[in-house]
Amino acid sequence: MAVRTQATPARTTRRHASRPQGTVAEKIRTFAFFGAPGLFVYACFVLAPILISLGYSLTNHNPFNPPTRFVGLRNYLVLFTDAEFLTSLRVTTILTVIVVIVPNVAGLGIALLLDRRSWFYNAMRTVFFTPMVLSSVVVSIVWTRMLDDQGLVNQALRALGIADPPGWLSDPRIALYSIAVILSWQLLGFCVVVYLAGLQGVPRELTEAAAMDGAGPVRRFRSVTWPLLAPALTINTVVLLISAFKTFDHVQVITHGGPGTGTTATIAYNILQTGLVANRQGYASAMAIVMLVIIAAASAVTLKILSRREISL
């Protein structure tokens, strides 16, 4: 007896078009609820001060010597022939170079030493990060007492047989480097934490495979660990560059721009002195705009170069 089989009709699957994420009105409402407050705060506290400073920089504004007149680009033309400003630019550049290099190198070395699993190393991470959360004024006062001619450092040097220790803050040849060391010490903890985070993200399989292939510790660091720390290097370099270039607190508390004339005066220090002490707010605004442009340009170039290195890896 022949069995007749009846083919069942194939089920046709319909691909439903994915629902849109939301209408335009819903997106606008979502942005207004979540994004608009942030943009409002940013506009009030970042964009508005920049625009106001830009406007003042085109005038001779002085609240104690009215009226205020529009002078165009004269402030900028005078600025680049001003010996005091050029000196502060040189001082700031030297300070920035030192602060970018020293905490980066020292922070990487300390992070390699602290990349262990125990309570002791966790406690040491806290110790190294503590200066970062302290006020710059507090750090400056403590180091001023330590580096004074009769301070703890010179007393220790005299105890070691050095009869005439250097004037760390009173010698014009040394004062700037002393401030650079203090600032580097305070920012060191940030670099340590960032590098530790990068080290903990390095796959153990890669280092173990390199060790099995006969690579020593130096070769493993150079060929495996260091390339994978490229994002940490980018973060640290950009943050250090910006922090060093806008240094004001340490100079104000420790040396007041001295010893001598402008030995340690940074651009930020000169801006505050020109705008709040000399009351030349139009000229100080021009200095601030120039500093903003320099920081933005240097940060953008550094970020582009280091990010390209990350991509190439």
From TrEMBL:
Principal localisation: membrane
Coiled coil, from the record: none
UniProt keyword annotations, A-Z: Cell membrane, Membrane, Transmembrane, Transmembrane helix, Transport
Every ABC transmembrane type-1 domain range: 89-302
CDD domains, per the entry: TM_PBP2
Membrane topology (UniProt): Multi-pass membrane protein
Gene3D superfamilies given in the database record: MetI-like
Comp. bias (Low complexity): 1-11
Signal among keywords: no
Localization terms from the record: Cell membrane
Family per similarity comment: Belongs to the binding-protein-dependent transport system permease family.
UniProt name for this protein: Carbohydrate ABC transporter permease
